[in-house]
Structure formats: C-alpha cells, structure tokens
Amino acid sequence: MLNSRFRASIAGLAFVTAGIAPESYSQTEDTLTIYGLINKELRYVAQSEDAGKESSVAVTDVDGFESRIGVKGSQDGDFKISYVAEVGVNSGRDASSDYRIRPRIFKVDLDTKGYGVITIGQDWMPSALFYIKMDGLAATVAQNYNLDTSYVVGGLGYGSLQGLGYNFRAFRDQIRYASPTWNGLTYKLSYDTNGPHDYDGVQRNVEHFLQYTRDTLNVGLLYADCESCDADMKLPSIGLAANIKTAGGLAAGFNYGLQTIGHGTDENGDMEEIIVTRIFASFSYQKDENTYSLTYGNATLGDQDYIVALDETISANYKEASQQQIGLGYKNMITAKTALKLTIAQMSISADEPIVSDKKENVAQVVALGVQTGF
C-alpha cells in the first residue's frame, strides 16, 4: 500500500491530466495497490527427429501468462470505479522488443451498483477468465490456450489453429457490459476492433457470453462474431463449457467449440468456411497445499478440400489436420503466494498431407519445472 502523500500526488496528476479540478470531485474511499507476479519455467523439450526439429533446455516465461507488474485501485462514491494498469515482461518470446514488454491490462470498470458493470479499455475478453479457471494446467507450458504449444510443435509451415482445446481473444481495447447476476445467470457483451484504432472499422468483433453459476456448477455459453472480417462471410465462434468443483477437492472442466478461422474456395470456386472443432477436458484433485491435474485438448480442421485459403493461413493441403496435447501437472503451494510446479506433456501436430516436404507430423515431449510467486 502506498503512503498517503504519494497517493495524493498520483491522484492530483490524474485530475490535471483529465482537466478536472480536484475540488469538483468527491469520494468516500480511494485505494491504490501495486502488485506483481513472476512466472518462470525451466523446460526440457524433446522433439521428433523426423520433423527436423531440435531438442532444447531453457528458462522461459509462460507465454500469455508471463511475469507482470501492475497497479490497481478503486474509488467509491455514488458509483464504484475500479482501475487496473498492468504490463507483462516476457523473456520467452523472440528477440523482438515489441513482445518483451507489452501492455496487458489498462481498463476502468464503472459499477452502477444495481444495473451492471461497464468496462472500457484493454482487458481479457468476457470468456477468457472462464476458460483459464477451468484449465488445471493454466499458466504452464501445457495450458490449452495453445501459445507455447504452437511454438513447440509448429514452425513446419502449418497455419495456426488459433487455440487448442479452447480459444479466446485477450488484451483487446474494448467496451463491455456485464449484467447483474439473476438466479445464477450473468450476461456479458463486448465490442472491439481487435486492438488498433481503426476508424474505418475493418474488423469489428462482438462477443456474447452467458454464464450460469449454482453451487459447484459453473457453465458458460459463448457466441463471438467478427462482423466485417470478410465481405461475404462472417467468422463466428460458438462454445459450451462447464466447470465443476466439489468440497472434496475434485474439479473437472469441459469445453466443446466450433470456430471458423478463415475462408477458402472449393474446386468449383464456391466460398467455403475453414472450421476448427475444439475439445477440452481437465481433471484436478487438491489436498492441502498439493494439486494434481490431468488435461487433454484437441483442435481439428474439417474434412473439406480447400483449393485456395483466402487469408493464406491455412494451406490447401491440410485436410483434417489436427493438433493435440495431453498433460500431467503437480503444484505445491510452499507459501500462500508461491507455488512450485512440475508439468509433463506430450504435444503433437499432424495432417493427411505433408506439412513440409515429406513430413506429416511432429511429436514433442516437454518436462517443465516452474516457480510462480506473487506480491
């Protein structure tokens, strides 16, 4: 917690920047907290020699869940205002400085105290945290968001399936509304233009997420649409996910989803959607400071033959291509805010046709020792 003089200086600077005199604003409570998290793994990766890939050992961040530092606070009056400013430091990406330090969350929440919460700024999308919480190996190399997996077994000229057992878009500038909870139901609606300030609205994304929570059951229903990604066709995502937790320390998460990730033309020149089917399952058991997890994720392209992929991310040859992963994890909370983690996973990617030259698949085994601590 910062001292009162420092907080007052920051608050005064904010008012000057906004062009608002401090005397014109009244509040009953103002809090400001600096927080952070360090998330590192020592990884051993053994890859298939047939795929022409090399094995490696390295210390790295977990992509998407990298080490970070931020500030958060709230102001409480007739409305409650909450804000977060957070940056991530990712040594696990390549040498490009664009990805080493990046803004993660810069948002303001306006709680109307009875009519819902309005969010504006860069944040997780409505469905993102739901999926993360049901993944027993989230924030490890084997998380099913597929960032690290695609780096390990990808790189064979194969277009990204944009997720593994589940998919979401994260850290986008958006405006979002979350309704009050009624009989366990909460509805969230977000709108964004994929991050950049595109005044022509080249890509307009809308996500609807309906969540039902009752006792140990948590169910989410997703419908997301890109309204203008293509002149002729839209790119919807649909998904049904469930997360169950019991008093005995058992937890299970499931997801089934369909997503159109591009367009192509068939042999007759007719437009076709390139569809990915996603399946995910997670099982965890927690006893005292120990948590054991098993997860499985799969993403598979449809069986259509595509002559041309308009967005050039999916080759015409990759009929029924698939990417899958099975992971085992152990986590021990050595303090209230520090965990040691062991993750073992097998990752694979394959296609009916060669991905590069005569290579149709790549299989990798990963062992990671991780430490995660927060403050």
From TrEMBL:
A GO CC term assigned to this protein in UniProt: membrane
Domain Porin: 18-348
Lineage, opening ranks: Bacteria, Pseudomonadati, Bdellovibrionota, Oligoflexia, Oligoflexales
Top-level taxon of the source organism: Bacteria
Protein name, as recorded: Porin
GO molecular function: porin activity
Provenance organism: Pseudobacteriovorax antillogorgiicola
Residue ranges of the TM segments: none
